[in-house]
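To: structure subgroup
Subject: Chain for Friday's discussion

All,

I'm putting the inputs and outputs inline so they're searchable in the archive.
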Amino acid sequence: MAKRPESATDALETQRGPLGRWLSFCLSALSHPGVFARQHILDPGFARNPRRYVTQAGLATVAILIIFVFVGSLSNAALAAGLAASVVTLFLHPASRVASTRALCGGHILALFIGSGFALLSVVGPVEGLMLAAPLPSDLGLALVVAMLIFVMAVTDTEHPPAAGTVLAMATRPSDIKIVAVIIAAVLLLAVVRRLIGHRLHDLA
């Protein structure tokens, strides 16, 4: 019987013993995603094209830094977190519907209107007294605000989960035109980024 040609993996095992076998096992797991289809630790796509992952993570870093420059200076963690979550969605799942320009802009703008409306309503005499009397009415109000945002986004086909951070941030702070302008500017900036480089991005999950 003809001797089977020695593969690179076999050579590695022969030369390095147990360590070689362990390394070849790791390489096989990365190269053949079906081996760990249910239990893989690393995304099989990373082994095939690590540069794509590093590049998109780097672009996301720049985008989030810009968001923090815009919003972080206003000391509003909820707003910054909501916009940062949009960046994560944009660079992790750029082809998904929730990362579309329509969803990105529509979701955050709806969140601005709904959150600001709740903030204005909460300072009306009787409503303000009810909110300050006990935590339950305030918590219920915020839950209803998020539910309203979900409903309106679903009806208008602008589903964008990170907008929940925006609606909660706007609902829990006094209305401020400066904040609204900053959020709109940041969202438009992300929309421009998506338009410019969206066709070059790939889903990483």
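Points worth raising on Friday:
The chain is about 75% helix and 0% strand.
The two ends are 45 Å apart (CA to CA).

D.
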